Amino acid sequence: MMRLVPFLLCICLTDAAAFHHYVHNQRVIGGHDAAPNTWRWQVSLQYDSYSDGSYYHLCGGTIIDSFYIMTAAHCILSVQANRYLVVVGEHNLDKYEGSEQFIRVERIILHPGWNGDLAKGNDLALLKLFNPVQNNGYVEIANLPRPDHVLPHGFPCYITGWGLVGYGGGIAAVLQEAPIPVVEHAVCSQPGWWGGAALNTMVCAGGDGVISGCQGDSGGPLSCYSDGAWRVHGVVSYGPAGQCNQVTKPTVFTRVSAFEDWIYSIVMSV
Predict the structure, then answer these.
(1) Which of 111, 136, 172, 258 has the least C-beta neighbours within 10 A?
(2) Residue 39 to residues 140, 190, 241: CA-CA distances in angstroms?
(3) 74 flagged as catalytic
(4) Is residue 17 part of a domain?
(5) Of 74, 111, 185, 233, which one is the catalytic site residue?
(6) Is 153 one of the annotated active-site residues of the chain?
(7) Using one digit for the tens of pLDDT, what is the confidence trace for 14-54?
């Protein structure tokens, strides 16, 4: 049986006290540089693995409220909130461009159904920030889909992130984007695709052997233009072990529309 893996990756950043970024990171497979100020809800979630003030790009994320970030539960390596840093308005991890905001995390909320098994789903977490995201023209709160909205087969979406490009591939510090069509559950759950590991609380996209998410893209958004606006329909969860862009092994996302009651219960709580 095909082994699934989370799209998780730590890439070291230096000079963390000033929050400057000098690392070359790798990219969404099959993607290209996103234009600055395009995916304004995209987040770089960074982690201090040694508690020494040096932060690493770990995962992606999505701004869903001025105080809340949505990401994947498997991106949470520690329950110590002070080991995480959220960077919004980010574009090039190599440069400080003046658009970035660096915000500490106050609280981590894992979905209560998450048990560490990607195939069981519920791979979702919310991060409450110490300080709100400020509207500086480079950030935006994401629109979410209608509750329980399921996109049809072939619906066009975009994956974005700073994840690996693949074995021996080029590197890019700039946020990458790639068009990636939805694969409906009836197809994605077939033998030879993801079978029983694809739940109806997930969204599959890709699987053409060309474009996919990869390590470092975890927690990032699947953005789709639906109901008259760009909306975040998915959170990057897992893909195949080894080469990420495999035929009939699409990138699998947590389906946001299946969890909106829980999301709003947290965001709207006092």
Answers:
(1) 136
(2) 8, 32, 28
(3) yes
(4) yes
(5) 74
(6) no
(7) 232 333 332 333 348 888 999 999 999 999 999 999 989 89
